[in-house]
Amino acid sequence: MEPITTRRVALKRPPNPSIRLSFGIFWLADLVATVFLFLDPYASELNPITIRFYELIGLPGVVLAGSIYAAGIVLIGHYLSKPYDALFAIGAVLVYALCASNNVILLLTGEAFLEALVS
Fold first, then answer.
1. Which of 31, 41, 60, 119 is the most buried (most CB within 10 A)?
2. CA dihedral 42, 27, 61, 49 (to 10 degrees)
């Protein structure tokens, strides 16, 4: 009988801790703002997957969808080679920063960021 060996997956982290911290902060800000979008009658979420999860299980579905997105980004970054892993993480930080900014502005003013720029 052979002993059972377990194989651990060690995820590569982007080399710069500030990238990881920024990702976590913007992801959390976007997640919190997205949850509030579902509680506000005048604001609406644009992501159809998040909306579907909300319809299926309520606010925990919003958190689940956001966590799945973050896990996907971490896994994709794990499989990319250097320097693409760091560039991908920076891109993810910028996307979350844009989404979080848009959602917070939408909650505060009732108008999306792009709509506010056009009008």
1. 31
2. 80
Q: Does a structural domain hold residue 32? A: yes
Number of domains in the chain: 1
User: Residue 19 CA to chain centroid, in angstroms?
Assistant: 14
Q: Which residues of 41-64 are buried (b: 16+ CB within 10 A; e: fewer)?
A: eebebebeebbebbeeeeeebbbe
SS3 label, residue 6: coil
Residue 1 pLDDT > 60: no
Token readout for 13 is: 């982290």
Tell me if 2 is assigned to some domain: no
Contacts of residue 80, Cβ cutoff 8 Å, sequence gap at least 6: 88
CA dist 22 → 11, 45, 93, 104 (Å): 18, 23, 6, 17
Q: Domain range spanning residue 101? A: 17-118
42-96 pLDDT, tens digit per residue, is 777 778 888 899 999 999 999 999 999 988 888 887 787 777 777 888 888 888 8
Contacts of 107 (CB under 8 A, 6+ apart): 33, 36, 37, 40, 43
